Amino acid sequence: MAQSSGTFTGAFDPCPDTPNCVSTQAKPADEEHYLAPIPITGDPDAALAKAIEVLTEMPRTKLVEQQGDYARLEARSLIFRFVDDIELYLDRENGVLHARSAARVGRSDLGVNRKRMNEFVAELKTRL
């Protein structure tokens, strides 16, 4: 998490050169890591709350931290209990929700982070 004095700065850490991370803040040309930002209409606070709700309804996913427009969650794999970090950032100025999901260890996640985020985005759009 890109922080300064414990406060989120609005920019996620870049995805590593491994295929186990996706982010809405990656460059669109980076097809391996790029995920489109999620447009927010209506109440931004309600949108962030719904985003957290959708994620915490996913198996083995829990909210770890929330500071204003930033939230960090953790998702654990079923068998080996590997931890993936999920970050959300409500960009009020641009009317979008940014998200990043990345494995903490290893090189390949067999597409788990992208699949999770695609499912998250699809479900969130039905609730906004």
Quick synopsis:
The chain has 128 residues and is of the alpha+beta class. It has two helices and eight strands, in the order E-E-E-E-H-E-E-E-E-H.
Walk me through the topology.
Layout (H helix, E strand, L loop, with lengths): L2 E2 L2 E2 L12 E3 L14 E2 L4 H13 L4 E7 L2 E7 L6 E9 L4 E8 L8 H16 L1
Antiparallel strand pairs: 1-2, 3-8, 4-8, 5-6, 6-7, 7-8
Describe the structure.
The chain is α+β, with helices and mostly antiparallel strands. The protein has a single domain, classed as Kinase associated domain 1, KA1 (TATA-Binding Protein, 2-Layer Sandwich), CATH 3.30.310. Helices cover 23% and strands 31% of the residues. The strands form two sheets. Strands 3, 4, 5, 6, 7 and 8 form a six-stranded antiparallel sheet that branches. The longest helix has 16 residues, at 112-127. It is globular.
Question: What labels describe this entry?
Answer:
128 residues, alpha+beta, TATA-Binding Protein, 6-stranded antiparallel beta sheet, two-stranded antiparallel sheet
